Amino acid sequence: MKLEIGGKLCQSCGKLLIGRSDKLFCDVYCKSSYHYRRSLTEAPRFYNQVDNQLKLNRRILKSYNKAGKATIRASILKEQGFNPKFFTHYWKNQKGSVYLFVYEYGFLKKKEQDIEKYVLIQWQNYMN
Description:
There is one protein chain. By secondary structure, this protein is of the alpha+beta class. It has helices spanning 28-41, 46-64, 74-79; strands spanning 69-73, 89-92, 98-102, 105-112, 115-122. The protein has 2 domains: 1-42, no CATH class; 46-127, no CATH class. It is built from 3 helices and 5 strands. It has a 5-stranded antiparallel β-sheet with strand order 1-5-4-3-2. The longest helix is centred in the middle third of the chain and has 19 residues, at 46-64.
């Protein structure tokens, strides 16, 4: 946006810009504000969606696994927003069971009396 006198306006607040000819914003606050408002109109990036789901999964597993090992119905975790498709790594025990981990909190899907459950564990040094 150019003025008749040859000046440019801040893309965020519309104030007259003073300084370099390629300047777009009057200060860092306006620059940050402009990019934040613009990010709200864009679709969330895939990376952010995955990262948010991993953080949610970790928070849920941590809340139900206070003692280091627990068993809980899968429906309870899923109601909280847990998605077992999002995990960071896995560990296979000596029996061949594969635990999926979200950072330091692991889970193993199992069925007991036709009820889907998860065994929750916490990462231990011997698992390295």
